[in-house]
Write a structure and sequence with these properties.
Shape: globular
Oligomer: single chain
Strand order of the largest sheet: 8-7-16-17-18-15-19
CATH class of the largest domain: Alpha Beta
CATH topology of the largest domain: FAD/NAD(P)-binding domain
Largest sheet: 7 strands, mixed
Number of domains: 3
Distance between the termini: 38 Å
CATH architecture of the largest domain: 3-Layer(bba) Sandwich
Radius of gyration: 22 Å
Helix content: 25-40%
Strand content: 15-25%
Structural class: alpha/beta
Bound molecules: flavin-adenine dinucleotide
CATH superfamily of the largest domain: FAD/NAD(P)-binding domain
Number of helices: 18
Length: about 500
């Protein structure tokens, strides 16, 4: 078996396939594992490249258990509480709390009548998640999959006609409270004003299961996954990009990389979907996902990133904070139009040093700044606009409590949508993959068992269920299950025993 790409989806697949007894080789174009969940490390500073919120650990916990390991003893996580601060430009702030009572008190500071509706919001979303879980955990290979009992029931709860913001109006009248429960659409690179109402479960997942920080950063989780995979016999070949997939007729039979050829019974593609199709499979072999069809799809936003190593620590700035632009709808319109830079952008800031001093030299700390912007459309000349946009972002960081930043910067790295596209091999630099509109979800997303060709399976944010670590890990479970069934793989007896052991891990629901 060959896995193309050692991102979270590829590593999880390698672990699961090895647990099923397969001989696995992973080829990765970069010199490190993790993909968008990798790290930048320089001058003693360590930055997460992408993910900073570790959510819903349950899926990865299951994957570790399938490999006979325990997530909570292999890695150290810190639960972040308050989870994050949401700053409403010129309109106060809210500190999101893990326990419902403290959260209700926070909401009451902004809107007493809304606080009373928090229990109903939580109860409804608990039901919504329970009903949608089987859908997230199953493949969507055929349109008839929509007719399964679980799916029909949850589609009814999905309220396809409603946006996330509209759905939240049932509970919260105050715009700011709704924003605190809907900005999470950014995890999908979408707007709360047109993101499907299903995604109220994103904020719910945080409130129900917490937000976690892996000590050392998210890349440490990726390193551990690679280590476990290697322990199970997986070969991970870094700095060895796949250059083409080898076919016999319509059946994939191997991969050619810059260093050699690897025959394979089946392939798992973890590389970004849009990029991988164009780079690895000739257009004429693809039926549904031709270059033209891929180009015509809707894509998520991108992000303008600043990774800053600074002198000292901003002790009063929380681990996670989000400043939402005063005119949020205009901000989002600018991002979706893709013609101009957002004038007064929303900003997400991670000040990980308040939790994790291991990320910077003594007396210093790191700031990770994420500004949602349009994916590459050709309209914005990034090399030209970076200097001025950087100044604008630093000015706005003052509003988030980051004072006198310019004089404290000791290291700086900037990544633009073009950087995501060129350096990280992401189609259009759309950091969160194909948009999660209803027309691009479930059956309408590229299938886990790739529908265009034989013996190819997809994992990662570009396939079902979608972008975000928990669902990416889920995609690895779905795709490797399909692959194992198709190839009649069986777990070696030692691991089969490990998977039926009673779970020893923390019961997350009870934390
Ligand atoms: C800025 C940002 C913030 C995010 N924040 C969060 C968050 O807080 N929480 C969360 O849950 N999710 C978050 N995400 C979303 C998502 O979890 C990550 O992007 C995740 O890393 C995507 O995983 P993946 O498996 O789809 O692929 P990737 O991480 O993109 O990995 C794909 C791998 O394939 C490799 N590859 C590409 N082409 C080839 C080739 N030809 N040959 C060999 N290898 C190849 C790449 O180098 C890469 O290593 C964030 C994403 C971004 C970009």
């Amino acid at each position: 078996m060959v896995v193309i790409g050692a991102g979270p989806g590829g590593l999880a697949s390698a672990m699961l396939l090895a647990a099923k007894g397969a001989k696995v080789t992973v080829v990765e174009r970069l010199p490190q594992v993790g993909g968008r969940t990798g790290r930048w490390r320089q001058d003693g500073f360590t930055f997460d490249i992408g993910p900073t919120f570790f959510l819903y650990p349950r899926v990865l916990e299951d994957i570790f258990r399938e490999c006979g390991r325990d997530l909570w003893t292999e890695l150290r996580f810190e639960r972040i509480d308050p989870m994050y601060r949401v700053l409403f430009e010129n309109a106060g702030h809210l500190d999101a709390r893990s326990d419902a009572q403290s959260m209700a008190a926070e909401i009451a500071r902004l809107s007493p009548e809304d606080a009373a509706h928090l229990p109903r919001y939580l109860a409804d979303n608990r039901k919504k998640l329970a009903s949608f879980r089987p859908v997230l955990e199953s493949p969507f290979n055929a349109l008839t999959d929509y007719l399964k009992g679980d799916v029909l029931k949850s589609l009814f709860m999905l309220r396809p006609q409603l946006s996330l913001d509209r759905d939240l109006r049932k509970y919260f009248r105050d715009r700011r409270v709704r924003q605190a429960f809907s900005f999470q659409a950014k995890y999908l690179g979408m707007s709360p004003f047109n993101c499907p109402s299903l995604f109220t479960i994103l904020a719910f997942l945080e409130h129900e299961f917490g937000i976690w920080h892996p000590i050392g950063g998210h890349a440490v989780v990726m390193d551990k996954m690679a280590e476990i995979a290697r322990d199970m016999g997986v070969e991970i070949r870094l700095q060895e990009p796949a250059v083409r997939i080898l076919f016999e007729g319509r059946r994939a039979v191997g991969v050619e990389t810059t260093k050699g050829r690897y025959p394979a019974d089946a392939l798992v593609i973890n590389a970004d979907f849009g990029h991988a199709m164009g780079a690895l499979i000739p257009n004429h072999l693809r039926r549904r996902w031709t270059d033209r069809n891929i180009a015509a799809k809707k894509y998520s936003c991108s992000t303008f990133m600043m990774y800053l190593g600074i002198d000292g620590l901003y002790e009063d700035v929380p681990h996670h904070s989000i400043m939402l632009a005063e005119d949020l709808e205009a901000n989002i319109r600018d991002i979706q139009d893709g013609r101009v830079l957002p004038k007064a952008p929303s900003i997400y800031l991670q000040n990980a040093g308040v939790t994790d001093p291991s990320l910077a030299p003594r007396g210093m700390s790191t700031l990770y700044v994420l500004v949602p912007v349009a994916h590459v459309t050709g309209a914005i000349d990034w090399p030209r606009v970076v200097p001025q946009f950087r100044e604008q972002v630093i000015d706005r960081l003052e509003l988030m409590g980051v004072k006198h930043l310019r004089e404290r910067i000791r290291f700086e790295k900037i990544l633009t949508p073009q950087g995501w596209r060129n350096d990280l091999a992401i189609y259009k630099g759309a950091t969160f993959n194909l948009s999660h509109t209803l027309g691009q979800m479930l059956y309408f997303r590229p299938h886990n068992r790739f529908e265009d060709l034989d013996r190819i399976y997809l994992v990662g944010g570009g396939t079902h269920p979608g972008s975000g670590l928990p669902v990416i890990f889920e995609s690895a479970r779905i795709s490797t299950r399909l692959l194992a069934a198709d190839l009649a793989l069986e777990a070696p007896s030692s691991l089969a025993a490990a998977t039926v052991m009673p779970p020893m891990e923390l019961e997350l629901e009870k934390v």
